[in-house]
Each structure stands twice: as structure tokens, then as C-alpha cells.
Design a protein that fits this description.
The chain is of the alpha/beta class. Strands 3-2-1-4-5 form a five-stranded parallel β-sheet.
Length: 156
């Protein structure tokens, strides 16, 4: 009975994304019990990655997919180039901004709130996901862009 239900669900489910059949079967057999009011630990210790794509990442990726053509030219991203690699169209050069000097992928070490080391009017696109809520002065991100540039930002 369960096997027939799984096959039917797989046939009807069109947007699988990164969910494997094993993960889907595990969810059907052992669903998360969210009704526990005395629980002091999270349902998932891996922020939802153990059950597929976390819900915030789904919306970030939908947003960036819709603006795929805006990610072009000289592009800046915070922490790594994950979204530039996945959604970039005709990226000429990319830079990685990070405040942590131990990040091996960082090409620019600076605090975004006071990024004086980065020249003005430089980037065609700035992909800034889940970062601006930690920055007091967001005018710096506008200063980094060329006159026709885009800031693609998403916050919680």
C-alpha cells in the first residue's frame, strides 16, 4: 500500500528539485512532528538541509532565476560565488567580498558597512543574499555599482 502511494506521489510531483527518492520515502515514513510544544531542540540540526532545500533558499533561488539576465559583467557576491556560478549570464569577472580574512575564496577583504577599499562605480551587479540586515549603512552597496548596475538583495 505504501509503495503504491509513493509511486503515485512521485508521478504527481513535478518540482522535485534536489530531493531524492530516499529522502521522500523517509519523509513519508517518519514525518516531522511539529506539534510538540515542550520540545527544546530544533526539528533539524542542519537548518533543513537534511530534508532537502530550506524554504528560504527556495525563494532566494526563485528570485535570482527571475533576474538571471541581470547577473552579468563584473559581479560581486558575499562569502562565495555560489549564486553567480548557478545563475550568472555572461559574467566577465567575479569578486568575492568577505570580512573574514581566513576565507580562501575572498578576493576583497572589507566590511561592507565601510568598504572604503573598494572603488566606487565598479560592479555591474551585486548579489547580496541574507546580508543587508546586518549592515547599518546600506548606501555603500549603491556606491559600489556602476551607473547602470543592479543590487540583487534578499533578506529574511
Amino acid at each position: 500500500m505504501l509503495k503504491n502511494r509513493i509511486i503515485l506521489a512521485v508521478a504527481q510531483h513535478k518540482l522535485w528539485g534536489s530531493v531524492t527518492l530516499a529522502q521522500y520515502v523517509r519523509r513519508l515514513q517518519h514525518p516531522a512532528w511539529l506539534g510538540i510544544s515542550r520540545r527544546t531542540t530544533p526539528v533539524s540540526s542542519m537548518y533543513g538541509w537534511d530534508r532537502g532545500l530550506p524554504v528560504d533558499r527556495y525563494y532566494i533561488e526563485c528570485f535570482l532565476e527571475g533576474h538571471r539576465l541581470d547577473i552579468h559583467g563584473y559581479v560581486l557576491e558575499v562569502k562565495d560565488t555560489h549564486y553567480i556560478d548557478k545563475f550568472g549570464a555572461e559574467v566577465r569577472q567575479c569578486e568575492v567580498l568577505d570580512i573574514d580574512p581566513s576565507n580562501p575564496r575572498a578576493t576583497i577583504i572589507a566590511d561592507l558597512a565601510a568598504a572604503d577599499v573598494i572603488p566606487s562605480d565598479t560592479f555591474d551587479c551585486f548579489v547580496c543574499t541574507q546580508t543587508l540586515q546586518y549592515i547599518y549603512n546600506i548606501r555603500t552597496s549603491e556606491r559600489l555599482l556602476a551607473s547602470y548596475g543592479f543590487v540583487l538583495s534578499q533578506t529574511l
